[in-house]
Design goal:
With 337 residues, the protein is of the alpha/beta class. It is built from 14 helices and 12 strands. A 6-stranded parallel beta sheet has the order 2-1-3-4-5-11, with helices on one face. A 6-stranded mixed beta sheet has the order 7-6-8-9-10-12, with helices on both faces. Helix 5 (74-88) crosses helix 13 and helix 8 packs across helix 9.
């Protein structure tokens, strides 16, 4: 049985079909009294708009894409869930893809014949593409950038303050009285901007207290994966004077580090305290549970989706919005027992 139509609602509310359409689609101003009356009938009859027909009329697909480097990194999976929730509130469907952090995969999204043109807009967490490449892209699909790749305010961009996050994590360890705080995850090359910002925060926390940074305690990793965290921790444990605390640049590195410490018979946090970043769910249930810097993933998702939809609808207040989303320290067993 077919559902109620705009004509049915108009007849019941004693208004024109155009008025009902304006209420449903928000096309034109409608008085509060009239909007309330029409909405009551919409609710009474259980009217649901035909989204496919609406999108066709507007030249839209009703879909946005979320493109991240690695779907099997829990942070991106948890962020994707929040993005889907935020988009659903606006009747948008989210398609998800990954680039593997590969430059060619990222650049392929920018071409005139790119699959990105299938969508009304794109949420992109890039690692390699430059601001110049974005400005000169062949398609004009609205884009909001996620993550910490630096674009100097040239595009819509939503991220946390990585320097401040790393400063807070390192300060937490130093304030516990730890004297040899290591860092796992530095990436001193062009695509490692997130890691570089976290290294700056790590160094600033030491400088604020007049403490030197011991270079051998800063261990780079090619990616932010568990195995690499464990390997870096093994390297640190092999030093003549191992660290008594470790700031890991994400939770996966931290979980790998904890595994290496446990395997070596080193107690966490008694002998070595460990902090991560991302507040992934796995860290709540690790042994010990993981102290972490928690970005507000829901705020990142809602801000990014709202910004993208404003760009799609032509209602964005500026051509570039740089939004910094809050973070907080969550102290658990890996630093305080």
């Amino acid at each position: 049985m077919a559902g109620p139509t705009l004509r049915d609602v108009a007849r019941r509310a004693n208004v024109s079909i155009r008025t009902v359409s304006n209420v449903v689609n928000g096309y034109a101003p409608v008085s509060d009294e009239l909007r309330t009356r029409v909405q009551a009938v919409l609710d009474e009859l259980g009217y649901r708009p035909n989204l496919i027909a609406r999108n066709l009329r507007q030249g839209r697909t009703g879909m946005i894409a979320l493109v991240v480097p690695e779907l099997d990194v829990p942070y991106f999976a948890e962020l994707a869930r929040e993005v889907i929730t935020a988009a659903r509130a606006h009747d948008y469907v989210v398609m998800i893809d990954q680039t593997d952090g590969d430059a060619e995969h990222e650049r392929a999204l920018l071409g005139r014949d790119s699959r990105a043109a299938m969508f009304d807009g794109l949420l992109l967490s890039p690692l390699t593409i430059t601001a110049k490449e974005l400005r000169e892209r062949g398609n004009r699909v609205p884009i909001v950038l996620l993550g910490e790749h630096i674009f100097n305010g040239s595009f819509h961009h939503v991220a946390i303050d990585n320097v401040a996050a790393a400063f807070d994590a390192t300060s937490h360890l130093l304030d516990l009285g730890r004297t040899r705080v290591a860092a796992i995850g530095d990436q001193p090359y062009a695509t490692g901007e997130t890691a570089q910002l976290r290294t700056i925060g790590y160094r600033q926390a030491h400088a604020r207290r007049g403490l030197p940074v011991v270079d051998e305690l800063v261990v780079p990793t090619a990616r932010f994966h568990r195995r690499l965290g464990a390997e870096a921790m093994d390297r640190l444990l092999a030093l003549p004077e191992p660290p008594d605390a470790v700031f890991c640049y994400n939770d996966l590195l931290a979980l790998g580090a904890i595994r290496a410490l446990t395997r070596a018979g080193v107690r966490v946090p008694d002998d070595v305290a460990v902090v991560g970043v991302d507040d992934i769910e796995e860290g709540q249930y690790s042994t010990p549970s993981l102290t972490t810097v928690a970005p507000d993933k829901a705020a990142i998702a809602h801000t990014a989706v709202d910004t993208l939809l404003s760009a799609i609808n032509g209602t964005a207040t500026s051509s570039a919005a740089e939004v910094v989303v809050p973070h907080r320290m969550i102290v658990r067993e890996s630093t305080t027992g």
